[in-house]
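New here. Your pick:
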Amino acid sequence: MTLIDLVLKDHYKILSVVGMEKNVGKTIVLNELLEQIDEKSLVPGITSIGRDGESKDILTQTDKPLIYVSKGTLVATLEMYLNIADIEVEILEITNQVTSMGRVIIGRCLQSGYIEIAGPASNNGIKNVAEKMLTYGAELVIVDGALSRVSSASPGITEATILATGAVLDRDMKKVISKTFHQVHLFSLRGLKNNEVISLIEENILEDGITFIEEDLKTHHLKLKTALNASRRIIEEIKPETKYIVFSGSLTSKIIKEIHEACGGTDVIFVVKDATKIFISERELNYFLKIGIQLRVLDEINLLAITINPYSPYGYNFNPKAFMKAMKSYFEDIPVFDVLESGY
């Protein structure tokens, strides 16, 4: 089964590809997906959340692979890139999404060739242009998740996610697998099962700040622009009856530690909208789970597959077969692909 077979099996319309680091082969994955879509005679759309650096990697001085699109592909990219593209693009819409580098344009490629993709910088902007490309005829929209920004994996934006990892993360294969396992673990955090609590959270989570839900489902809200450095204010609002603490924004290990140390016990459940809002290291996550701290999400991320790149631009690589075998042994329930090698 190929990557596109996995996507089409459940009829997903908006897919994200998220790289754990530069040079994990994310662009190669995108090009492979677009080629497979072309073989299925489908109309793809592609955009990116922001812009992932320059055309040449500053650290390694290697050329970054460009996106190759077939005639008929829909793109949402910056106006400046349409002006310098080697291919002709029919402009379908000048959107109201404006970045620091200019306007985002939706167009249809009238020729096959290479083009640079850089879309809206915000989650709402990405969702907006992705849905518009569907209305213009795209049958599958791919969102390129920019460097260190996993937000495109949010279920509020895309229906499924492919995670790209590789040797560039570390010279030690075991450490690469460990780092990947941590990210997959975060993406796999479970959702809530209590429908009444879910309804209450859905009513409150769009507000800035923290919502506290007690065992009898009474709620109160602490309005904050950000929870960072606000642990003391949050702790003051916690009652003995508090069962859920719901964060509308990000949740960090520092907040969890300070709340746990001040209140004690593990009865309180920390809730965020989805796992892209959680910023916790591997060691901290393992410690929290060991002492019984409960982390839940409102929307579960649908991790469709993992892709691996056994080669690093820093002059070392892993044996592709050994890397694949090791990855598959750790991720038995998630398909693993090496798009750099023939066959999967």
The two ends are 8 Å apart (CA to CA). The domain at 3-188+302-337 is CATH 3.40.50.300 (Rossmann fold). The first strand starts at residue 14 and ends at 19. The first helix runs from residue 3 to 9.
